[in-house]
Amino acid sequence: YQKNIFRFFFIFFTIQIFPFDFSFFGTLFSIEWSYFIFYDLFKLVKHTTSFYTSGFTSWIITAIIAVIGTLFWKSREKKPLNYDKLNYWLRVIIRYKLAAGIIAYGLIKLFPLQMPYPSLSNLHTNYGDFLPWKIYFHTIGITQGYESFLGAVEILAGLLIFNRRTTVFGAGIIIGF
User: Fold this and answer.
1) Residue 173: enclosing H or E segment and its boundaries?
2) Are 45 and 104 a contacting pair, CB within 8 Å?
3) 144-159: per-residue pLDDT in tens?
């Protein structure tokens, strides 16, 4: 049963990490590399495979594909694979994907782009009309120096996650973050 669980998660995470839909390649080939805009790189880093839906429905479809793939893998496996090596490479790929995403989000905080200074109309809106995330964004947006500090901490954590020896420290920083 442990091999089946591993097979399921191996397929599930592989589908989520690698671009198996054409929207990624459309974004990749539409980037004007001579005129670099950070948002283009950000879109590439945060890309996940979606099946013409978004959010939770896409995850369910990915899980169904992973179950089918697990059953197929189990039926076709003649000689046992080295699951320790597969586990190692899956962890490396997941770690690199997470680190790249964390660094990308850190960069848009380092140069205050994610939480801009609130507009005049937002400042005149009643406090009770805001959702909790909007209150947080406006609070951080007013203190742009703090937003840059948070971005630097996030970038540091992402860089620590890239190295296998410092992964625990980077993950600890992100959990605290």
Assistant:
1) helix 167-176
2) yes
3) 899 999 999 999 999 9
CA distance 162 to 172: 14
The whole-angstrom separation of Cα 124 and Cα 41 is: 35
* Amino acid in the structure at residue 111: F
Using alpha carbons only, give the angle 41, 37, 102 rounded to the nearest 5 degrees: 35
* Model confidence pLDDT, tens digit, residues 94-144: 999 999 999 999 999 998 888 888 889 888 888 888 999 988 888 898 988
Of 22, 17, 23, 90, residue with least CA distance to 48? 17
| Distance from C-alpha of 58 to C-alpha of 112, rounded to nearest angstrom | 31
For helices 167-176 and 83-110, give the axis angle rounded to 10 degrees: 50
CA pair distance 11, 112, nearest whole angstrom: 37
Contact status, residue 104 vs residue 154, Cβ threshold 8 Å:
no
Q: What is the pTM of this model?
A: 0.82
Q: What are phi and psi of 54, to 5 degrees?
A: -135, 155
